[in-house]
Amino acid sequence: MCEMRVQLAQALALLTIAAALPGQAAERGWRVLEAAPTAPGWRLVSPDEGRGPAVRSVPLAVQAEPRPSAPMEQPVAEDLRPPRRLQYAAPLIGGGVPSGYVAGWGDYYLALSAGTPGKQRDGVPDGSINFGFGLGDPFRTVGMQLDVGIGSVKNLGANGGIGGSIGRVLVNNPTLQVAVAGGVMDLWSYTTNEFGLYTFPNGYGAITVATPLRRNDPGFSQVLQVSAGVGGNNFASLDENFQGPTVGAFASVGVELTPRLGVSVGWSGRGTNAGVSVVPFASLPITVNLIGADLFNASPFGTVGVLTVAWGDSFRTGYFAGLATP
Question: What pTM does this model have?
C-alpha cells in the first residue's frame, strides 16, 4: 500500500509540473505587432523575435526610398526599455503530459496543487508543491530546466524529488513552432516512510508542434498545440498489481478558445486526461488549471482530479521587469 501511495504521489507531481511549465505559457504563444503607419496592417511574430533591447514593429510592405531632393529625417534614439505586456500568461494546453518546451534563462514557476485520492490514499485528498527555473536559451542554443517537487502537503516533507530537462525550439517562425525536449523525472528523490521506498528515475522524450489558427487576427492568434513522446514506466499501463511494461507512450492536443481560456486532452500512457486552463488576471502571470486524469478509470490509481494554481513568469521580461519600467 505504501508503494502505491508513492507511485500516486509521483503521478500527481507529473500532472502538477505539466500544468505549470512556464516554457509552455511564456514561449509557445505568438503575439501581434502593429506595422508602421506607412504600411498599415498586422503580422504575427514568434516569441523570441525582437528579444533583446527592444521589440520593433516591421512594415508589411517595402517602403519607397526617399527622393534625392527630400530632406533626410534625423535618426531618433531607440527606446531600449522592455515593452510592457498586455497579458503576462497564456492558458496551458499540454493535456497533463510533457511537451517539447522547456524554460530558458530567467524563467521560473511556482505551483500549488490539490488532488483527489482516486482509489488510493484511503480516500483522503492531498496536495503537492512544485517549483522550477530555467537556464540557457532554447531558441538559440539549448534550454535547461530544473524542477523540484514536494510530493505531499498532508505529510509535508515526507517525500519529494528533483528532475530536469533540456530542449530546443527547432522551427520558430510566425506560422509554426517545433520544439523537442528530453528529461528525467525523479533524477533524485527521497522518502521518510518506514519501508524506505524510493521512486526511480524515469526518462522521457517529447516533440511539440504549435501553430496559430488565426494568423491575421490582431487580437487573438488561437494557438493549436500537439505533443507526442515516449518515456519510462511512469507512462506505461499498469495492471491491478501495479505491474506493467518499462516503456510507454504519451500524446496530447490542445487549443486556445480565447486569449485567457484553453482546453486540452491527452493520453498519459495509463489513461485519458482532459484539462481546462484559465488566466484569471491579464495583468498577472497566474494560471488556474484543472486536469482530470484517467477519466475512464483504466489504471489501478483510478480517476483523479488535480487543481493547480501556478505563477509562471520571467525575471527578464515578465511581471517584475514591467514594474521596474518607468
Answer: 0.77
Cα four-point dihedral sign 280, 52, 65, 62: negative
Average pLDDT, the chain: 79
Q: Is residue 69 part of a domain?
A: no
CA distances from 136 to 141, 167, 276 (A): 7, 10, 30
Grid cell in block for residue 245: 511494461
Assigned domain for 56 exists: no
| Of 202, 274, 265, the residue nearest 11 (C-alpha) | 202
Containing domain of residue 193, as a range? 2-30+93-324
In-domain check, residue 302: yes
Write the CATH number for 171: 2.40.160.40
Q: Do residues 101 and 93 touch, judged by C-beta distance below 8 A?
A: no
Q: What is the pLDDT of residues 95-144, one digit of tens each?
A: 999 999 999 999 999 999 999 988 876 778 999 999 999 999 999 999 99
In which band, very low, low, confident or very high, does the pLDDT at 50 lie, cut at 50, 70 and 90? Answer: very low
